[in-house]
Amino acid sequence: MRQFLKYVLATIVGLLLFTFIGFMLLFGVASVITAASDKQVSVSEKSVLKLDLDNPIREIGEDNPFAELLPFTSDGDVTGLIELRRALANAKADPNIKGVYLKTESPQAGWASLEEVRNALIDFKQSKKFVYAYGENMSEKGYYIASVADNIYLNPIGGLEWNGLEGEYMFFKGTLDKLGVKPLIFRVGEFKSAVEPFIREDMSEPNKLQTASFLNSINNHFMANVAKSRGLQLAELQRLADNLSIQTAADAQKAKLVTRVAYFDEVENDMRRKLDVDEEKKINYISLNKYSKAKKYVDEGNSRNRIAVIVASGDIVSGKDNNQDNIASDKVAEQLRRARLDDRVKAVVLRINSPGGSALASDVMWREITLTNKVKPVIASMSDYAASGGYYMAMGCRKIVAAPNTITGSIGVFGMLFNAQNFFKEKLGITYDRVTTNKYSDFPSVTHEMTEFEKNVIQQSVERTYNVFTTKAAQGRKMPVDSLRSLASGRVWSGEQAKANGLVDALGGLDEAVKLAAKDAGLKEGDYRLRFIPEKRNFMERFVNTISDEEEARINSQLGEAAPYLKYMKKLKNLEGIQARMPFELTIR
């Protein structure tokens, strides 16, 4: 037995040592590659910046030292919106870059992010350099970016989605009924539809009203921009969508939505002629990852004067949550304090991309925003979403800038508990009993029915939070509280609608917000440098997260069609306390 234990212990130690050495070797290889990749990349003459925009597009990208090395290249690599915009601005001035090739079929991004990319491409085209786009099958999101290209190519057997936008919600009431779980809902405002998936099997009329309103606003903006770029009539584009007229690549060409139906080799032949290179010569493509390390032709500005761009993206939670998909209140509050106390930082742009979350966490960050705003200008830049808790953050800023297709507003709060007594008893055979020292020692509880008095206590707390939210919003927007509340009640607006009703000050992207921040700080163009906070996530952080992502992907593959339910149920962990959150999960496609 002693020998057996000795061998078992030796095996365990060996495995641990092997894992440690393997990890250190991987870290060493990554460090060497990272160091090598930090060297300036040389760009050949007549190069083409190749942009694959079908990967997830997020505010800030991730470093991947293996990005250019097979088999480490991942289709799931994140494209950083900030890095992408910088690269296009630099390529505009780079004499060795003659054009941009776009692969944009089905981008994984919101409409406001696509707007930023599209506007950056429009700016690039001022250099008179070409932009070519090719796709085998293009979604409307992919086509929105491609629509600014000089030439749009579609595979002969491919297709183009052209049928308008759809907003879809998922409802869980049937699931909860089968499990014997009873949701207890506390909310203010007829439009606060974030709780509907738990108490309904379909959308309420107010929710249908608001969704149709902002969805049509986003769709009209999309169609109008496409019409302008392609020299088409808006009414004709709407007719094509209404009649499902675009069924084939040939239909798309006939409608002048694409320039040419062609295979990829034909696209490259066109590019060679444009580049004036031999037909047999390989095109000098350079990827976004490599080009980010090329010579800089854009002056970064005076480093003594800085505008801090604090990126807040994800669900709003309390504390110092390390999840990259969350906005942790303590982290953002600390970033704001540092910016406020740093004399080199003359202004702050708060880049918000959030559907909301914890009302308490939102208020913690609002406080730091208002304190900073007293010392130096703080401008809000809204991305895909700045709703509910996201708007709570923005309302403390001096000015608010939104994209026309930003989803914003949703000024309202709710509280939610689940009575799981029947679930535990009927499904699991578990019962509960208790002894208390005071009448409400067990308040609140998920294992027995709450009294009307207890429910009323929570409802009053929700109403107090709503009053605080709307009062602060009214102060921030400099309008009477009653006027603000007429726009609130949890209603969601598009950026264009929010500008019209006074919830935002200006329409535009990050550039517009930076210009307003510089103006309020008394800085001229070239007098300041942007500093983005946080920086790109480094390789080791990404590697550790990839392990957990792969495990989650494995579980999801086993769950099949039930996987989305797991994703949404995991989000329930963040629904602690009173929430300032937009409709729980909205998919626009």
TrEMBL record:
It is found in: Membrane. Keywords: Hydrolase, Membrane, Protease, Serine protease. InterPro entries: ClpP/crotonase-like_dom_sf, Pept_S49_pIV, Pept_S49_SppA, Peptidase_S49, S49_SppA_67K_type_N, S49_SppA_C. Residues 124-277, 373-523 form the Peptidase S49 domain. Pfam families: Peptidase_S49 (PF01343). It comes from the Bacteria. Belongs to the peptidase S49 family. This is Signal peptide peptidase SppA. The gene is sppA.
